[in-house]
Amino acid sequence: MEIPSPLFLLLCVSLLSVVFSSNGSQNFIVHVSKSRKPSALASHHQWYASIVQSLSTSAHPSRILYIYEHAANGFSARLTAAQAAELRRVPGVLSVWPEQVHEVHTTHTPDFLGLPNEFDLWPNYDYADDVIIGVLDTGIWPEHRSFNDSELPPVPERWKGTCETGPDFPECNRKIIGARTFHGGYESALGRPIDELVESKSPRDTEGHGTHTASTAAGSVVQNASMFEYANGEARGMATRARIAVYKICWNHGCFDSDILAAMDQAVADGVHVISLSVGAKGMAPKYDRDSIAIGSFGAMLHGIVVSCSAGNSGPKPLSAVNVAPWILTVGASTIDREFPADVVLGNGRILRGVSLYSGDPLNSTNLPLILADESGSRLCAAGKLNPSLVSGKIVVCDRGSGNRVEKGRAVKIAGGAGMILANSKTDGEELVADSHLIPATNVGKTAGDLIKRYADSKSSPTATIAFGGTVTGNSLLAPKVAAFSGRGPNRLTLDILKPDVVAPGVNILAGWTGSSSPTGLEIDERRVEFNIISGTSMACPHVSGLAALLRKAHPDWSPAAVKSALMTTAYTTDNSGNQISDLGTGNKSTPLIHGSGHVNPVGALDPGLVYDINPKDYISFLCSTGYSEKIHIFARDDTDVKCDSHKMKPGDLNYPSFSVVFNADSAGIQRGGVVKLKRVVRNVGISKNAVYVVKVNPPPAVKINVSPSKIVFTERNQSASYEVTFTTDGASLVTKFGSIEWTDGFHRVRSPIAVRWHNDLVASI
Question: What single DSSP character describes residue 145?
C-alpha cells in the first residue's frame, strides 16, 4: 500500500546512504551474557567500554551508542565489518549484527467497537487513569486538544520517567507524563548531527504519525472534531484517561534498530504498562534473534508489559505479517462502518462507488471529458509524464500504485486536468482509501476501475463527473472488512503460531495531527488540520494498545499473555450483517491467516471466562524447540542455567489461544494422512468460581478433531485445567483449511481458530 508520507519518500532514496558512512562503518547491535563480565570490572558499562577499546583501530574511532539493561543485555556501537568480526570472538558476546531501518506502518471507532461513553460496563476502572502507555513513534504535538489533562488526577507514583523539554517542547502535563528522544543510532548512521532546521530534535512531532497513534490509544475526549467537516463528532481514544509516555524513535530517514531498542529499554525502566509500536521491518519478518522489536518485547514481557505491534502494510501477499513473535500482540487492520463517498457518475448514467476527502470547490460541470492516463503519457500519472494537450480540462483515470496517491492528482492538476479517478490494481482489490486530494478526485476499487476503463474505451467521447457525498455511517456499510494492505500469514518464522493475532480499525481513521505538517505530508500542500484521516496497521495497533490498557486496569494481576488471550478468544469473525468477515485484498471471505482470531471485542474481552496463560519459561521452551538453542541467552538473559536439552516441547504446544497445525511437518513434501496432538491449559477468570465448560468443535474439511476431556469443571476462580486436542486426517491438500474450537459455559464463548496445513515448505530455515 502506498503511504502518503514524506518519511516513506525519503526512505526510498536514502536508506543505504544513511546506514553506511563513507568509511564503511555501520551501527551494530551487540547482545551479551551478563554473567560473563570479568570480576575485575566494577560494572557492565566498564566491560562494554573495554571490549570496544580493545578492537583494532579504524580511520574513525569506534564508539558506544547505547547500553541496554532492562529490555535486553548489551549495547550498540558504530563499527567496521572487521571490528564486528573481532567482537563476535569475544567471550560472553552472544551475537553481533548490523542494525536494520524500520518503517512506520501507516472518532467514530469507539462507538463501532462498542466502547460505552459511561462507566456502566467498566465500573471503577475510570478508563485506565493510572495506566501508562508508552508510544514509540515520531513524537507528539503536545498542545493538541486530545492531550488535555484538565480532568486527570496527579501522575501515577509508578512513573519514573522524565520530560525532555526545550525551546519547541516546553513541558509535559498529566496526560503526556513523559517525553524522550532517541537519535543516537540515527545520527551515527547519518554521520552528522540532526539538522534542526529540517526536523525537530525534541519530542515534538513534525510528521504527524506519532500524534495520530497516541491520540488513538489514549486521547482525551474532544468535541466537534473533524477534518474539513468530514467525520464530524466526538473524538476520543480507547483509554481516554490513560497516561501517555512518548518515545520519539522515528526520523526523516526511518526508525533505527539501536534507537528502537534503547527506547524500549527506557520504557521498561520508566514504568510503562503497555508499549504501542506501530513500526516494523520492511519486507518479511526477520528472525527472532535478529529483530530488535522481538528482543525488546521479550524483555518488556518479562517485566509484565503488554507489547502491541502493527502487522505491517505489505498485504495482501502471503507471509507479509511482521512483528510475529508469540509474545507480541500482532494487530492487522480492518474497516469500520463509516465512509466518505465520492462516486463516479459515467456519461451513460452508471454510478460507481468511490471515496475521497477532497474539500475544495466541486467540479463545475455535470459531465466532463474522460481520458485514460495510459493514453496520456503515464498510466500511473507520474509527475511530468502526462501530455497537457490531451489531459487539459478532463477527468483522468490513473492507476493506483508506484507512487503517492495524492501526488498523482497533483500531476494531473499541473497538466491541466480537471479531476482524477484513482483505479485500484489487482493488489489493492476493493480496498478504498480516502485521501485529502488537492484536485477533485476519488479512489475506486478494481471492479469499478475496470468498468470505467471499458466504458472509456467503448465511447468516442466518454464523459464523467464525481459526486462528493460527505460522511456516511451506519449498518448500510458492511463492516468490518480486512484491509488489502494488512499484513497476513502464514507466519514465516514459525508455522505453528498463527499470526496476526487480531484485527482492529485501521482504514480511514480520524485522530489527532501535528500542526507542522499538511494532511498529505507533501511540501506543496500548505493546508493544516487539527485532525487527520489516514490508514494503515499503524492505526489499528494503538486501538488495541488502548484496549490493553483498559484490561490492565480492570485486571491488574493478569499477565501480558492473559491480556492477549482475552482479546483473542472473544474476537468475532462476522460483519454487521451477520456474515463472515470479507477480505478486501482478494474479494473473498477472510480466514484466520488474514484476520487471526478475528476483530477485537472490548466488552467481551473484559470478561472472557477463560484465559490461556504463558509464562516466560514457556517462551524459552518454545524458542528452544524452534532452533534457537545457541542464541537462547539473548532471551533468557540472567538465567545462566538455561539448557535447551531440558526444555522438551513441540512449538505447537505453546499455550497459545489459537491453533496452527502442520501435518507431516518432518517430510519434504505433501503426504496423505497424519496425526498431530497438541496440549493446552485454560484458567478460570470468570466471576463465578463454579463453572462447567463444554467444548464445541468446528473441524476443518478432511480433518477429525477429538478434544479430551470434552467437559471441564471448575470449582475455584483462577483454577487451571488442561486438555489435549488430537487432529487426524486421511487426506492431503495444497490449500490451508480452517475450523475452530469453542469452550462455553452457556454465557462465555472462548473461541480458538484453527488453521491446518499438510506441508511446511513455507517455514523459514533458522
Answer: G
